[in-house]
């Protein structure tokens, strides 16, 4: 019997729109420079809201204020070069950002931030790190919004219960 249980990689993503353009990051990946929403992994002891605020700040040098949950998304990638077969579970939030914080460096691997309109996004799909990038933006454009409290966090996340 296999003792290893399958677990998806849980990530968060920020969908940020201003004036019809979306804030993206250009980041170094195993496949080269790719485009993505500001996004990253959920850390232990961190709520999804805390994670998306942290990741957006690290990758864009801008404070992110979540306003709604767009949804939960799943995608699977097979990377033969690395021998990886990975499934991602993404919690995507939309919200707003302030101006870039002067002097704050972008996270390692992030080359730059850029604003793109929907036509440019659709035309650049070959450079998207994930098919979820465009899917989340299309859902945002369609008006999809769920309340932030749709994601519930029990206090045990911060102070784990000891059983037994």
From TrEMBL:
Record's keyword terms, sorted: Hydrolase, Magnesium
PROSITE patterns: NUDIX
Hydrolase in keyword set: yes
SUPFAM superfamilies: Nudix
EC number assigned by the record: 3.6.1.-
Pfam families in the cross-refs: NUDIX
Annotated ranges, domain Nudix hydrolase: 5-138
Cofactor(s) annotated in UniProt: Mg(2+)
Record-linked InterPro entries: NUDIX_hydrolase-like_dom_sf (IPR015797), NUDIX_hydrolase_dom (IPR000086), NudJ (IPR033713)
GO MF term set: hydrolase activity
Domain of life: Bacteria
Family: Belongs to the Nudix hydrolase family. NudJ subfamily.
Quaternary structure and partners: Monomer.
Stated name of the protein: Phosphatase NudJ
Organism the protein comes from: Roseateles violae
């Amino acid at each position: 019997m296999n003792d290893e249980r399958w677990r998806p990689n849980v990530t968060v993503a920020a969908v940020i729109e201003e004036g019809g353009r979306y804030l993206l990051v250009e980041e170094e990946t195993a496949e080269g420079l790719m485009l993505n929403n500001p996004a990253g992994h959920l850390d232990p002891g961190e709520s999804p809201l805390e994670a998306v605020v942290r990741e957006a700040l690290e990758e864009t040098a801008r404070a992110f204020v979540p306003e709604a949950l767009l949804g939960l998304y799943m995608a699977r990638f097979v990377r033969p070069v690395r021998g990886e077969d990975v499934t991602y579970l993404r919690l995507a939030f939309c919200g707003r950002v302030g101006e870039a914080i002067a002097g704050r460096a972008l996270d390692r691997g992030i080359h730059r931030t850029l604003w793109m309109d929907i036509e440019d996004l659709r035309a650049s799909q070959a450079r998207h790190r994930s098919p979820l990038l465009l899917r989340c933006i299309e859902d945002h454009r369609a008006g999809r919004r769920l309340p932030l409290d749709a994601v519930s966090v029990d206090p045990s996340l911060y102070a784990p219960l000891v059983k037994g």
